Amino acid sequence: MTLPVAETWFNATRLDDHTTLIIEPHIHVLEQANMFLVEGSERDMILDTGMGVIPLKPYLDTLRRDPGKEIICVSSHTHIDHIGAVHEFDTRLVHPAEAAEMARPSGLTTLFRRDMPERLLQTFLDAGYPPIGETLIEALPHAGYDPETYRLRGAHATGLLSHGDTVDLGDRSYQVLHLPGHSPGGIGLFEAATGVLFAADAIYDGPLIFEGPGMSVPDYRATFALLKTLPVTTVHGGHDPSFDRARMLEIIAEYEALWDAA
Ligand SMILES: [Zn+2]
Ligand SMILES: [Zn+2]
What we know:
Blueprint: E1 11-14, E2 19-23, E3 35-39, E4 44-47, H1 57-63, E5 71-74, E6 91-94, H2 99-103, H3 118-127, E7 159-160, E8 166-168, E9 173-178, E10 187-191, E11 196-200, H4 217-229, E12 234-237, E13 243-244, H5 245-261
Parallel strand pairs: 4-5, 5-6, 6-7, 11-12
Antiparallel strand pairs: 1-2, 2-3, 3-4, 8-9, 9-10, 10-11, 12-13
This protein binds zinc ion (2 copies).
């Protein structure tokens, strides 16, 4: 296997004066998750931590206005593309339904397609994703990197986030929403003052995954029913570009029709 060496592993885009989107562009699009750095007056938050191929926190500290400030890590759920670097942070928050999984990941923990169940690969193809090569990485983070050495580590939670809890960054605060369907303990963060919703994998503008271990279409329907009642202005999803409420309602309608027809 010969993979090129990436010039930079992470890519950051400032979305507004306090929110930065970070991605790993050399991960296969299927597992290329969005990470959001939100800088608050009292503390910063990283929502999700990518695959953990190389250390994330030193990179985040180059982006933060005050790298000495406290930073808390919130995991929206515990799929491999969202908790890779969770162990690098001192404060690690997750929904109770996925705390055990975060401590000891039981799903995919390597970069290799050979370790992904055939059925799961088929689900991804059916959902509209392109086929995966031998590995989930399409470039090496540095010369000499051996993909065989990668293992998803996970970490035990230092605190739990349930529906109705608040994540307080000082000048900004987010309401925790339990959004199961894609995963049993999936959470979103809603900022009532602005209508901004970090929805993670509950809804994004790309193929949604609703069939697999821990997934439930009835739960997904209830999650969508909740989202439709929220005065959302902007949705930052777990994958793909952000979108507005009108697009959110379109995506919801598309999947509700698909499930109704099944
Ligand atoms: Zn994801
Ligand atoms: Zn996911």
